[in-house]
Amino acid sequence: MAPIKRALSSYMIFCNDRRKQVAEENPGLRIGEIQKLISTQWKELSEQEKEHYVQLAAKDKERYEQEKRDNPVEVEEANSETGAQMAAASATACVYQLGRVKKIVHTDPEVGKVSREALIAISKASELLAQFLATKGYENALFQNKRQIKSSDITRAIQSTGSLDWLREDFPDVKPTTQSQADRSKTKKANAAPLPSGASFFKPQFSKKESGTVDNDGVDQEED
User: Would I find tRNA-binding among this entry's keywords (predicted)?
Assistant: First the structure.
């Protein structure tokens, strides 16, 4: 049994109705140019002229809905095929451009022809590696209470992952993480030498002397 045809819009019905005539009237035009001309003609139609195609589209939609009700199994199979096609397209969609990946691969003089499947595999592997390094770098930055991910966080991720030992020569180890600014401030304050007793504002700068007392002007006074 033939698959169920989807309902056409009013514009698509107009295109199908006009395509042959426009092609005959303009034999030198290409398919894309013919379609542009038809699109211009559609825009120039009044709402009343478009109403004819709107009604045809409504009837075609009724036909489509009725065929779906009459053939539920076929509709389910069509949906599953569409889902499989979308999944396949998503699986082959790459963040990195395959042309760029191909150029990088061919920088190795020993590499010959590279198939499209191989380029997709390399691109996908590169995406997974970048995602892994970004996640590990974020974890390192979070552990150090930092707001930004730096190159040193990525380097630590490489140095601490055994399966990435092939990258260690290109990303040499970094120095141990220093204390944060707050920790350094606390350590400096704790290790600071105590102030002399005379430096405190709340402690008297002068004490009683054996020969007398000290007045407000700091001058020794004889005891009566």
Answer: no
Q: How many CA atoms lie within 13 A of 114 on its CB side?
A: 20
Binned at pLDDT 50, 70 and 90, residue 54 comes out as very high
Residue 4, C-beta contacts closer than 8 angstroms, at least 6 positions apart = 64, 67, 68, 71, 74, 75, 78
Residues 87-118: pLDDT tens digits?
555 555 667 788 888 888 888 888 888 888 88
CATH number of the structural domain 10-70: 1.10.30
Q: Domain spans of the chain?
A: 10-70, 94-170
Is 135 buried (19+), middle (13-18) or exposed (0-12) by CB count in 10 A?
A: exposed
Model pTM score: 0.38
Angstrom distance (rounded) from CA 65 to CA 71: 10
The CATH number given to 94-170 is 1.10.20.10
